[in-house]
């Protein structure tokens, strides 16, 4: 299995062209517990198949609305690349969701409906708003929320590139899927922040958006994991046992710890001088994308 490398001293590859890679993953033979003997870790990571498609399509809709207003050609180019990557992520996870979870007897509908309601109803543009200034303010709020969520996706992307899945014989197809996605999140981690700053450079709005993102992330991780473990026909675990298994998997490097994900990784975003460049390595992400089986096949 291909294992990405991270070095203390790396050569900065400089600006990279953000582009969608039309990848394909065959998951018919991927086991439900794709990290053997670690069902909770498998479900926590697998939860992203449910949460991400609606979220990323919501990103795309907001960016398509914002793009005509952007006069900076480099930022506009990055936004177009971001839109392409996020749309591809949504399509891939949506396909895997139905081919993988349904095959193993898990119905994701209850969680999926909650996610779709959040992004398609609660956070969607209000059609009753006709005043241009109010519409722009609403767009700016969404752009900052996207930036906050993208901070977490960069954190998770960096984790996927440096975690211990390989040491526990995780399924190579699923590992490549999450590392391909994680690498692209690290690759384009500056875009959402730059777009939000371009439209409305506000520290208050940045922090408000992060507080919302943190709440939503924690809620869906908890509720989604609980639902998937209860729906797992091969697993009989109480809520408390599930939490203990999650903590143990985090200690093994199979999952990010909540202390780091919702603690230090979140608090770094509160620094007035924060920049997404602080999270992850572009060199590592680009190197993985250059050797990822799925990404390489996409260029053939």
What does this molecule look like?
With about 300 residues, the protein is mainly α. The protein has one domain (about 40-300). The protein has twelve helices and no strands. The chain has helices at about 40-45, 50-65, 75-100, 110-120, 130-160, 170-185, 190-200, 205-230, 240-250, 260-265, 280-290, 295-300. The longest helix has about 30 residues, at about 130-160. The mean pLDDT is about 95.
Indicate the topology.
Blueprint: H1 39-46, H2 48-66, H3 73-101, H4 109-122, H5 132-162, H6 172-187, H7 191-199, H8 203-231, H9 239-251, H10 258-267, H11 282-291, H12 293-298
Q: What keywords describe this structure?
A:
300 residues, mainly alpha, 12 helices, 65% helix, globular
Shape: globular
Domains, number = 1
Estimate what percentage of residues fall within beta strands.
Answer: under 5%
What is the straight-line distance between the termini? 20 Å
Q: What is the structure about, briefly put?
A:
By secondary structure, this protein is mainly α. Helix content is 65%, strand content 0%. It contains 12 helices and no strands.
């Amino acid at each position: 299995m291909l294992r990405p490398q991270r070095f203390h001293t790396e050569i900065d590859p400089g600006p990279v062209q953000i582009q969608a890679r039309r990848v394909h993953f065959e998951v018919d033979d991927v086991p439900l517990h794709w990290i053997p003997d670690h069902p909770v870790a498998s479900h926590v990571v697998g939860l992203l198949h449910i949460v991400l498609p609606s979220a990323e399509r919501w990103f795309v809709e907001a960016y398509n609305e914002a793009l005509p207003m952007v006069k900076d050609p480099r930022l506009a180019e990055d936004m177009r690349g971001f839109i392409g990557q996020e749309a591809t992520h949504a399509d891939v996870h949506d396909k895997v969701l139905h081919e993988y979870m349904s095959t193993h007897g898990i119905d994701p509908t209850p969680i999926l409906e909650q996610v779709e309601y959040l992004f398609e109803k609660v956070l969607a543009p209000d059609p009753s708003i006709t005043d241009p200034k109010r519409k722009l303010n609403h767009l700016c709020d969404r752009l900052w929320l996207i930036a906050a969520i993208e901070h977490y996706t960069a954190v998770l992307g960096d984790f996927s590139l440096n975690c211990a899945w390989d040491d526990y014989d995780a399924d190579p197809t699923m590992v490549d899927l999450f590392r391909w996605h994680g690498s692209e999140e690290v690759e384009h981690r500056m875009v959402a922040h730059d777009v939000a700053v371009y439209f409305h450079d506000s520290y208050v709005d940045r922090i408000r958006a992060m507080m919302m993102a943190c709440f939503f992330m924690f809620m869906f991780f908890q509720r989604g994991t609980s639902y998937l473990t209860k729906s797992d026909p091969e697993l009989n675990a109480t809520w408390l046992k599930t939490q203990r298994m999650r903590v143990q998997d985090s200690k093994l490097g199979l999952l990010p710890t909540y202390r780091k994900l919702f603690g230090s990784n979140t608090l770094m975003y509160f620094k007035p001088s924060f920049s997404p460049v602080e999270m992850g390595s572009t060199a590592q992400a680009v190197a993985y994308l250059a050797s990822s089986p799925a990404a390489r096949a996409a260029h053939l």
